[in-house]
Amino acid sequence: MLKDKKIVLGITGSIAAYKSCLIIRQLIKKGAEVQVVITPAGKEFITPITLSALTSKPVISDFFSQRDGTWHSHVDLGLWADAMLIAPATASTIGKMANGVADNMLITTYLSMKAPVFIAPAMDLDMYAHPSTQQNLKTLQSYGNHIIEPGTGFLASKLEGKGRMEEPENIVACLEQFFATQQSMAGRRVLITAGPTYEKLDPVRFIGNYSSGKMGFALAHECADRGAQVEFVCGPVSSAMQVSHPNIHRINVESAQEMYEACMRIYPSMESAILCAAVADYAPETVASQKMKRTGDDLVIRLKPNPDIAASLGKIKKEGQTLVGFALETNDEETHAQAKLKKKNFDFIVLNSLKDEGAGFRTDTNKISIITAEGKKGYPLKSKAEVAKDIVDELEAL
Ligand code: PMT
Question: Which residues fall within 8 angstroms of residue 250, CB to CB, at 6 or more apart?
Fold first, then answer.
């Protein structure tokens, strides 16, 4: 899987830097080509001579070569690589990556990277558990980066035993696993909806819901990582929610009507659709052109039904196309999910319940069941990135 793969290995200032030699040895043994980019602090822990001897390439650390003054192009590195791995990644580098602080060659290379990025954090538990570090890791994950942690491989939802860098053989195994699944959806086109819809009342107010878009973003990145071309129709989410994968084409919409129009236009040329958006079922019948003023009386707002995007796509679904929906329930979960599965002509429906702690809106985790006409498969609470893998595995198995 790693044969002829071009890997940029970023090394930062951690005691675990010596383990990057083992990572290099294993990558090269498996046929990969490795280019090391090291931070100034990284050089305090391991010498560039050792690293260049192992990779048979000069190590890049500065913006200009110390030898002849030529410029090291981070843009070229970003285009050259099949993957970037930062191992070990310190809290400082993770913070700079999350916030775009481009003050060394490693960060500029990261910001120019066109290939998937893997990050293996290494620090003590207190630093790791600090809300700043956790927030930065979540930010990086929401940008589609892969966080590799001890035990689980990819980012886990619990903190215990964390901070220590994952063992080199497991880091290399994560890369292998990634490349093994990477092309499984190559050439496939997938429509994914995410986020809430806002239904305007007047120029300053709307009817909306709590969807953050996190589940939909995780699905878009998972499909893109497997080689699919993703048409990503996204409702109004926080500006911190960004896609960075070249396979994802994002279309921003605000209302259910706009989402409906985009989906109806796009779906006929797709092989699959995953409808994760929390779409408002109703919108105000009229939208006031000026801000509505407070009066002493009750205010009655008349709502009209929005189009049911899923049911409309279910009606135009052709042979060879697949359609996956979600059901967010608060009671009689399975009965409601079963009814939606049939009514909307889904191939399967992903049920999440607000009764389950850590599931549903805004959380970084979710607990789902996948329901088909044949039966139900339950899954434990997992990070939304891991849940996305389970859903896309199921889609690929259809
Ligand atoms: O965004 P996050 O904060 O990460 O939260 C994720 C989530 C909870 C929003 C997500 O996991 C989820 O459950 N999404 C679907 C929420 C929802 O609106 O469910 P529903 O049971 O009301 O709708 C059933 C299905 O029909 C969904 O696939 C929905 O996208 C679709 N639908 C609903 C109404 C409508 N008018 N058109 C639709 O297409």
Answer: 232, 234, 243
Atom of ligand 1 nearest to the CA of 327: 21
> Domains in the chain, start-ordered, CATH in brackets?
6-182 (3.40.50.1950), 189-397 (3.40.50.10300)
Determine whether the shortest distance from the Cβ of 130 to ligand 1 is under 6 A. no
Taking the centre of ligand 1 as the mean of its atom positions, its distance from the CA of residue 275, in whole angstroms, is: 7
Average pLDDT, the chain: 93
Spacing, Cα 216 to ligand 1 middle (Å): 10
Question: What residue owns the CA closest to ligand 1's atom 35?
Answer: 308
Query: Could you read off the pLDDT of 341-384 as tens digits, one per residue?
Result: 999 999 999 999 999 999 999 999 999 999 999 999 999 999 99
